[in-house]
Design brief:
Number of strands: 15
Structural class: alpha/beta
Distance between the termini: 55 Å
Strand content: 15-25%
Number of helices: 18
CATH topology of the largest domain: Rossmann fold
Largest sheet: 7 strands, mixed
Helix content: 40-55%
Shape: flat
Radius of gyration: 34 Å
Length: about 600
């Protein structure tokens, strides 16, 4: 257990507490459970489209860039990237003709208010930088905002304020907007981690279920002496552990994530008022590029790694690690090692469980076989009995820990809205009514159908099919000799029917052998109706570990929605992919499509 706790605490303490020090979004998975029963699981198809158009032309002079942080971030969130873009550069990342300013990152307080309140703060920060443009004769509409996550929504809200009330807020001071991982269609995670009426509070459930599961096996093993169950010490330990985990979930977790459940997040959870306003607003003459990430699986552990490695003051933001954050594989390897450890321990204690159960039965056998030695054998039996149940409890504890590690990534995706159950068509059906073939067709169709059969395979389903001959095969009901169990088949090769019976019926009396050596042809009128077979399907969406692709890459007014494959939410501020796409954007090489004009974002190297 001593070797396991550091890794476990990363999951339940370091990861949670580090979120507030980061620049962005919330959290975690759903209730525990051994598995989710699925009919079908498939990936949602998503094709990012380019919608907007631009008539702007490239300039060769300096530009002003305003960098906006995301939820719970600050001026340090983009600080190194902003500074290196304007001056100094970095290996593979040349400095650009960007006016150097301090601060280049426009900070805002998002612990109160809504998106409009944050936008007004940003407006003040941008206005304070007017001399940068005025002194150099740079037009305001050439300025660019580069924003991460929530910052993109704040920038769009600011543009909406400019448009709806220009007399109060003045002219817009930027003409280009670049968003990274911005939930343009909302962030389900903001709703799912919230507690209170109408909110699922999934984070608390996740911690309450996972905390004891991953610790209990090792804790029981450390205290195992073969008599825990007999002395009820295991129950005391379990109650204590559950109490600690519940206190963590109910008290510490809300404090750790209070910045992610603040008033501003109501504005852009699904259906939020700020989000609704932005979706109805048309950005006028604002060129937008939206970058969205699709992280590799398992996204939970990769996102965990980035949240715990990319603090504002960490080495990830200092040479030689500038724009190189992509160190998430170690977290995946550690999680898989821990999962396999739990499974190995489960198998070990399962073997001991079987051993002690066998020894218990053996001792009880000899106690009955040799009454004179019965006390000694009964003592051994009692010892093995206690160890059997103790081994069984520890086995189950490790198995629960193994299942938690196995399913944690799935729960995470449910939290962020990247995995959902959808009731939809999963195939075609052909529902056929069979009528008495001994009657005329009109009379048969006017009566009640004899049988109804649903063929979920679909196929040919003709409303007008009329006469059909089925083959009946009957056997005497073994529990009622006066009844026959009869199967009706569509296909018959002259000797035996093939396929499954169309339907089965119970018929009274008579000879159950039928004609033709046990098979009897029967005529029916058949009328079929095509339809859809409905069922539950598990749909998974590409995501960056926090926001799904349909949200971050679904901005309908963007010039281009551009995928960063293999990047998660936090990495998009400081990763090699960020470096590559910024280089391409500033060089004018992000898109080779001549219909996509990204000229405003072209900035020459110094």
């Amino acid at each position: 257990m001593k070797n396991r706790l550091p890794f476990l605490l990363i999951c339940f303490c370091l990861f949670i507490s580090s979120l507030y020090a980061q620049d962005e979004c919330p959290l975690e998975p759903v209730e525990k459970g051994p598995s989710v029963t699925e009919i079908t699981t498939h990936k949602a198809s998503f094709t990012p489209l380019s919608y907007g158009t631009s008539s702007k032309t490239a300039t060769t002079g300096d530009k002003v860039i305003f960098w906006l942080h995301g939820l719970a971030g600050n001026a340090k969130s983009w600080g190194p990237v902003a500074a290196r873009t304007a001056s100094g550069g970095a290996p593979g990342y040349p400095a650009r003709k960007v006016v150097y300013s301090n601060p280049e990152v426009v900070s805002y307080d998002d612990t109160y208010g809504n998106l409009n309140d944050a936008a007004l703060q940003v407006s003040g920060g941008i206005n304070s930088q007017d001399p940068l443009s005025l002194n150099l004769g740079l037009p305001f509409d050439e300025n660019i905002i580069i924003a991460h996550s929530q910052g993109g929504l704040v920038a769009r809200s600011l543009d909406r304020l400019y448009d709806t009330d220009p007399a109060t807020h003045g002219p817009r001071k930027f003409g280009g907007l670049v968003t990274f991982a911005t939930p343009h269609q909302g962030a389900a995670i903001l709703k799912n981690i919230r507690s209170g009426p109408g909110y699922p509070d999934m984070l608390t459930q996740f911690v309450q279920s996972g905390c004891p599961e991953v610790i209990w096996g090792a804790l029981m093993e450390d205290f195992y002496d073969g008599v825990l169950g007999f002395t009820n010490l295991d129950a005391l330990l379990a109650n204590t552990l559950n109490t600690v985990c519940d206190l963590t979930a109910q008290n510490i977790i809300p404090m750790a994530i209070h910045g992610f459940t603040g008033p501003i997040t109501y504005d852009y959870q699904p259906g939020g008022p700020g989000l609704t306003n932005l979706q109805a607003f048309s950005h006028n003459n604002l060129d937008i590029v939206a970058f969205y990430g699709v992280e590799d699986e398992p996204v939970f552990w990769r996102t965990t790694a980035s949240f715990t490695q990319s603090g504002n003051d960490s080495a990830a933001n200092v040479d030689p690690f500038f724009l190189t954050l992509n160190h998430d594989q170690q977290a995946v390897d550690d999680a898989e090692t821990e999962r396999d450890f739990q499974l190995m321990k489960k198998n070990y204690w399962e073997g001991l469980e079987s051993f002690h159960h066998s020894k218990y039965k053996q001792s009880m056998f000899f106690a009955r076989l040799a009454p004179g030695l019965s006390p000694a054998f009964l003592a051994k039996a009692r010892n093995h009995y206690n160890k059997y149940y103790e081994s069984k409890d520890i086995k189950n504890a490790y198995n629960n820990g193994y299942l938690w590690y196995l399913n944690a990534n799935m729960y995470w995706k449910e939290i962020i809205g990247a995995r959902e159950s959808v009731y939809q068509s999963v195939g075609t059906t052909c529902e056929c009514d069979y009528f008495d073939g001994s009657l005329p067709q009109s009379a048969a169709y006017g009566s009640n159908s004899t049988f109804t059969h649903v063929n979920t395979g679909g196929g040919s389903c003709d409303y007008n099919v009329s006469s059909v001959t089925l083959v009946k095969s009957c056997q005497t009901d073994p529990f009622n000799p006066n009844q026959c169990q009869c199967d009706y088949y569509e296909s018959y090769d002259g000797t035996n029917p093939s396929g499954n019976p169309v339907f089965t019926a119970t018929e009274s009396g008579g000879d159950c052998t039928g004609a033709g050596g046990g098979f009897e042809p029967v005529n029916f009128w058949r009328r079929c109706t095509p339809g859809n077979q409905m069922g539950w399907t598990i749909v998974e969406h590409g995501n960056d570990g926090v926001v799904v692709q349909e949200s971050a890459g679904g901005l309908t007014q963007a010039l281009i929605n551009y995928e960063l494959s293999g990047a998660n939410h936090q990495e998009m501020r400081n990763s090699p992919l960020t470096k590559d796409v910024l280089n391409n954007l500033f060089d004018g090489d992000l898109s080779l499509d001549p219909n996509i004009n990204l000229a405003i974002f072209k900035i020459d190297p110094r």
